[in-house]
Here is the input.
Amino acid sequence: MTDAPENVTTARAPGIHRAMLVRPTDNVEAAAAWLLMVLGLVVAALSLMIGAGVYHDGMRREGFEAGDRTRVEAVVLGASAAPRAGTSGGQYGRLRPSVPAEVPVRFSGLDGVEHVADARPRGPVSAGTPVWIWLDDTSAVVAPPRDPAGVLWDAATAALGVLALGGLVLATMWAAVRTAVRRSNLARWEREWAQVEPRWSGRAQR
Here is the structure.
């Protein structure tokens, strides 16, 4: 009589162990994990492609602007005011990048004719200060060509943005899968416990 419980336990334990290892939800969770890993690699590759595309496009534009614009020396005609923060007021205005104030400058255009126009020199300047400005083919004052460091920053920002957004979506999908699997396991455990508990507690023999 003393061997019966041990035999029963020994016979049932491996079956229970195998049942726990081959639950359908375990297979679903494993398949979802592999799928999300593959999608993660796709998102990483896509972010690199987008970053490279932004970089090549920016460098192409930088080369075009550098070849289309000419730097000339100009003389400031009036003192500049302090740089102003952004275009909107309020307590957050100081967080916006500062915008150089416009000052009148005199310069010789590409045609040799003297011009007077407004420019945005970096930092405060006083009258008579020589500054560098950029002109287009019509001798109009334009913004300087894009900086390669700025192009690289734009490319990195685009790549990281895609990677972060894709990672957030994949993390949300994984959390949804885990929640669904957990609920399914709990429901199955409750059904199995409802079948086992009467025999385990002895209520079925009463």
Q: What stands out?
A: The beta strands are 70-76, 84-85, 98-99, 103-108, 114-119, 130-135, 141-142.
